[in-house]
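Its record is retained below.
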Amino acid sequence: MDHVREAEAADPLGGSFRKGWRRAKADYGENLREIDRARDLSMYDHILQAKNEGSLLFGLGRMHGERLRELLRKHNIMYLTMEKFVARQRAQYPQD
């Protein structure tokens, strides 16, 4: 997975991805972990770019969210599971 290491080395944020990326509580074997690490880096880059362009909402799977949570928090991007998001929406905007 040399391309993953090359992409991490070229991180425009000075290695913040490499320093902040965390494994999810439930994880895969080493080969899939490397692939998911590459996908996480791509998602992280796209989320930051979209935020800078004014986007307010991003969707990603639970395990990707768990691994990226702390990185996103450092950029004032809140991570919520879909269940928590929907519960907050229902509480804030009840529909009888």
About this structure: The chain has one domain: 2-92.
